[in-house]
Amino acid sequence: MSNPSIPVSTQSIFKDDILKGKVAFVTGGGSGICKGMAEALARHGAKVTIVSRTLSKLEVAAKEMRASTGGEFFAVAADVRDPKQLQAAVDKHIAHYGRLDILINGAAGNFLSLSQHLSFNAFRSVIEIDLIGTFNTTKCCFPHLKASKGTIINVSATLPYNGQVFQSHACAAKAGVDALSLVWANEWGPLGIRSNVIAPGPIANTVGMSKLAPEGTAPRIPIGRMGEVRDIEHATLYLASEAASFVTGQVLIVDGGNWLQPGLT
Ligand code: HXC
């Protein structure tokens, strides 16, 4: 929607107020793709809590996003692997905002390693952050999502579809996240809760790309360009808004067709 106070390059193709009155809880929302998702929610009227391990980093991110969006951000530290920390974070969120409408499970960890070189603890660490963290967060948020007939967006990846090499830990974790999301769509649809997945492809200028893209290779993308955080923001706004009120149990792949191509990334 056209807003003269916002530069044309950052204006949204969605109406400014589509999430007015909504409140979001975004794990991993202090950096990378999920920071973009948090920002997009705020730009369209939602109040947002961002959650990750380090409060000082979150405070900086919240300040930046208040300045860039004029929106409300609340920073809460928690490690998604620890149910007690998560419960405390959700309690703080509710004490601060009083409700929860949109949960984004975005906290993730990843690195490249062949399976035979992964330590037991390394495999478990990624499963604990991506998969168990998603369960922990969602379980703590459930009563509030039930009260608001809210919506869940899980951030996954296309890696499991073709058994991406060097990524056994993340493949296993993200396949689990996709499965959980379908179960929640089934179990909680009758309660008015929707549950969907966004599976981003190669997104330029992200930690994921710098950590995971093999040096000297370019992802094969039929659409002919790298993804931008903005592409994931658009998918988020669609799924979080009334536009997707009849959409649940879906995995929305936002990758320009990348996963259809053979080979690495
Ligand atoms: C092999 C490694 C490793 C590496 C860590 N480990 N990095 N093993 N290769 N590059 C091992 C450690 O040696 C240790 O095992 C175990 O993993 C846990 O590591 P810690 O550093 O102690 O754990 P922790 O501090 O909890 O860190 C978790 C982490 C880390 C996942 C390992 O990378 C992290 O916090 N990442 C968060 C940021 C991040 O990765 N963002 C990218 C997300 S991108 P031992 O046996 O020594 O104890 C993304 C996109 C996916 O998710 C989809 C892409 C398309």
Automatic annotation (TrEMBL):
GO molecular function: 2,4-dienoyl-CoA reductase (NADPH) activity
Keyword ATP-binding recorded: no
Reaction(s) catalysed by this chain's protein: a (2E,4Z)-dienoyl-CoA + NADPH + H(+) = a 4,5-saturated-(3E)-enoyl-CoA + NADP(+); a (2E,4E)-dienoyl-CoA + NADPH + H(+) = a 4,5-saturated-(3E)-enoyl-CoA + NADP(+)
Superkingdom, natural source: Eukaryota
Name of one Pfam family that matches: adh_short_C2
GO biological process, one term: fatty acid catabolic process
Enzyme class, broadest EC rank: oxidoreductase
Name of the protein this chain belongs to: 2,4-dienoyl-CoA reductase [(3E)-enoyl-CoA-producing]
Record organism: Dissophora globulifera
Source organism phylogeny: Eukaryota, Fungi, Fungi incertae sedis, Mucoromycota, Mortierellomycotina
